[in-house]
Amino acid sequence: MEPAGPALRGLRLHLVTWNVGTASPPPDVTSLLQLNSLGPTMDMYVIGLQEVNSRITNFLSDLAFDDPWSIFFMTVLSPLGYIKLSSVRMQGLLLLIFVKHVHLPFIRDIHTHYTRTGLYGYWGNKGGVTIRMSLYGHTVCFMNCHLPAHMENTEQRLDDFEKILEMQFEGENIPSTLDHDILFWFGDLNFRIADYGIHFVRESINNKRYNLLWEKDQLNMAKKKEAFLQEFIEGPLQFKPTYKFDLYSDVYDTSEKKRKPAWTDRILWRVKNLCQHASKEGEFSEEEQTISVTLNNYISHMSYGISDHKPVTGTFGLELKPLLTDPLITLNPEGEWSAEHDVLIRYSAVPEFPSSAWDWIGLFKVAFRHVNDYVTYAWVEDDEISSNKDSKQVYMSAAEIPDAGGEFLLCYYSNNLQAIVGISQPFQNPIMQTLWILDRPPPKLMPVVNRDAHRST
């Protein structure tokens, strides 16, 4: 009798799409991120924004520093135990992914890409930004798009999306977008409600008879005709069309243009196994199905008024059979940690781990925001002090250990894999009691030149 494989693992994913209309972040996003929900907390947040302020002064500043929206979401989510895993920006398009610390060692091969479709591919006001990864050994891709506007541009929207789907990530052995196990497609897709006049549309919305409008939704119509769209799944549109509203209100456009309401803001997904199954005869056995996606809710958030679009969220359950069950690196602090003396870290690696001289171990506060938000670090080769067949030991200089104390954790960053591949349990660094005497200088910081050598975007 063969031993049972690893048990299925359930992950909760919360996905946001929002055309923010160049506005600054709102005062509160508790309901948007469902931070007060009574159920289990989210394992991953995926946030796709469109029309982030990209005037030249703002954009140049954001290239040098994190943009205000990224800082805002990091400020909200990092104290709750989430780290910004990755981000990608193309002018007004921004895609952010946050995950719980516990999942970091099992997320690898992270790559980003952007595709311009505005002005015949030369301008990035329209197009798509994409992040892909291996999640517990399964390939997952997230695609945030802003497609052309206006009722008459349905064919242009479909052509642009096909172009975005054809993009290729840089690197070896990375599947195309449609070859990922799961592909999420979302954004301001700009599909409109055809044929019906504005009065019929508004009357149907007022009476909550949204189903009367579904058959004339341009995306629903295209899914019936276009083969490449038929594999994408969407939840029922049981909420008001999310465009176009007067600012800071739930009143549809009262300007002279009086835009017809539309479900422009959408979230769809595609599971590769289901697509393969649909093209074959016979049942798809449970043993073969190693990953599945369940939509738990699909809603708009009417209380947010900073833009003429309302944000839309989808909460998903991912059930997968982990193909990775052990971290590549196990590490922990050794002995007493204090700013009064050098401190020790012991780590061990699995035999197949592709180590590099550029690998490093970072000391982070528990509420760290991203991989570069370290307090200090040690190079695993340069700062090694002992080694045996089972583990290695490195040191961190006392001069670099914060004397204020607090709760910290250690992360091992792999240069070859461009990812955190090991993370310790949180631990306390006691407050340093020794007072610096006047003629003794405070600890020196590490040279900045070394600090930047290993950073990745």
Report the portion of residues in β strands: 25-35%
Silhouette = elongated
| Structural class based on helices, strands and sheet pairing | alpha+beta
Low-confidence stretches: 278-287, 432-457
Helicity, as a percent range: 10-25%
Number of helices: 8
The largest sheet has its strands arranged as 3-4-2-1-12-11
Whole-angstrom Rg: 25 Å
Major β-sheet annotation: 6 strands, mixed
Order of helices and strands: EEHHEEEEEHEHHHEEHEEEEEEEEEEEH
* Mean pLDDT across every amino acid position: 88
Number of strands: 21
- How far apart the termini lie comes to 47 Å
Report on the structure:
This protein is α+β, with helices and mostly antiparallel strands. It contains eight helices and 21 strands. The strands form four sheets. The chain has a six-stranded mixed sheet with strand order 3-4-2-1-12-11, covered by helices on one side. The two termini are 47 Å apart. Mean pLDDT is 88; it is low at 278-287 and 432-457.
Summarize this structure briefly.
This protein has helices at 56-64, 68-77, 154-165, 198-206, 211-214, 218-225, 272-278, 448-451; strands at residues 9-19, 44-50, 82-90, 93-100, 107-118, 123-135, 138-146, 182-188, 233-234, 265-271, 291-300, 312-320, 329-334, 343-349, 360-365, 376-379, 384-387, 392-396, 406-414, 419-423, 427-429. It is of the alpha+beta class and 457 residues long.
